[in-house]
């Protein structure tokens, strides 16, 4: 009995130690990315694995560009579409989450997410696509780290450079080249609004660029764009 109790507490200490090491690993990455650009993300690596299962020569289209070389139109469009309160909240939009919960409950299926830009970035950078009981807790923890260590501008800069925008297309520059044959700096308001409208389901819209829902959402985003603030 004594040995069993002793083994149990040793096991607890090992688990606590592993959790602390994981936290330090996360904090270390977030601190590093304040000044250094991530070359990839957990989500990008997972997508590449899926693509290379079908075609061993498959590659991702991705090119990092600094914040000032991304069109203000795209910045406004993405915030208008994904997280209108980005500059006001501290990582979580509780009202938005409540609204999403009520919409999903009414429809009987998931039709709205409620995740902020910070939450989406936390998930993309660190977490695989697998759904686990502790995934939301991990996402929340990483979101808090980023919000307390990084500026809003830096969070948004990384987000715009790593999110998926099509089949194997990641980041604003690759998206602008893929869809419009131009740099992210030169996107018009209409082009930016359409790219922002693609964010929730980019691979589908990559293949269905004239989808009525996409075009309707593009018009809504374009009307909202001038009413949002962006990080300076």
Short description:
The chain has 232 residues and is mainly α. Helices cover 63% and strands 3% of the residues. The chain has 2 domains: 1-36; 40-227, Orthogonal Bundle (Penicillin binding protein transpeptidase fold), CATH 1.10.3810.10.
Characterise this structure.
The structure is a single chain. The protein has helices at 2-35, 42-54, 72-82, 94-107, 117-126, 135-149, 152-162, 172-180, 189-198, 202-207, 212-224; strands at residues 61-62, 164-166, 169-170. It folds into two domains: 1-36; 40-227, Penicillin binding protein transpeptidase fold (Orthogonal Bundle), CATH 1.10.3810.10. Helix 1 packs across helix 6 (135-149) and helix 5 (117-126) packs across helix 7. It is 63% helix and 3% strand. The protein has eleven helices and three strands; from the N terminus they run H-H-E-H-H-H-H-H-E-E-H-H-H-H. It has a three-stranded mixed β-sheet with strand order 1-3-2. A hairpin with a 2-residue loop joins strand 2 and strand 3. With 232 residues, it is mainly α.
Oligomeric category:
single chain
At the fourth level of CATH, the homologous superfamily of the largest domain is: Biosynthetic peptidoglycan transglycosylase-like
Question: For this structure, what is the CATH class of the largest domain?
Answer: Mainly Alpha
The biggest beta sheet reads: 3 strands, mixed
What is the percent of helical residues? 55-70%
Order of helices and strands: HHEHHHHHEEHHHH
Cross-sheet strand order for the largest sheet: 1-3-2
**If you consult CATH, what is the topology of the largest domain?**
Penicillin binding protein transpeptidase fold
Overall SS class: mainly alpha
Q: Number of helical segments?
A: 11
Ends apart, CA distance between termini: 62 Å
Beta-strand proportion? under 5%
């Amino acid at each position: 009995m004594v040995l069993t109790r002793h083994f149990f507490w040793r096991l607890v200490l090992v688990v606590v130690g592993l959790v602390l090491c994981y936290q330090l690993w996360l904090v270390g990455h977030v601190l590093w990315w304040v000044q250094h650009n991530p070359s990839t993300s957990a989500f990008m690596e997972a997508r590449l694995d899926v693509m290379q299962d079908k075609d061993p020569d498959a590659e991702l289209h991705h090119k990092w560009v600094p914040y000032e070389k991304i069109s203000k139109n795209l910045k406004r469009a993405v915030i208008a579409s994904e997280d209108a309160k980005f500059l006001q909240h501290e990582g979580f939009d509780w009202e938005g989450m409540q609204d999403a919960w009520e919409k999903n409950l009414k429809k009987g299926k998931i039709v709205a997410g409620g995740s902020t830009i910070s939450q989406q970035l936390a998930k993309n950078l660190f977490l695989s696509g697998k759904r686990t009981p502790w995934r939301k807790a991990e996402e929340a923890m990483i979101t808090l780290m980023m919000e307390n260590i990084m500026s809003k501008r830096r969070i948004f800069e990384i987000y715009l450079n790593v999110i998926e925008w099509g089949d194997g297309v990641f980041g604003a520059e690759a998206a602008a080249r893929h869809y419009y044959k131009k740099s992210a700096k030169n996107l018009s308001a209409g082009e930016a609004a359409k790219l922002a409208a693609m964010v929730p389901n980019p691979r589908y819209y990559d293949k269905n660029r004239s989808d009525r829902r996409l075009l309707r959402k593009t018009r809504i985003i374009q009307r909202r764009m001038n009413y949002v603030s962006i990080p300076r």
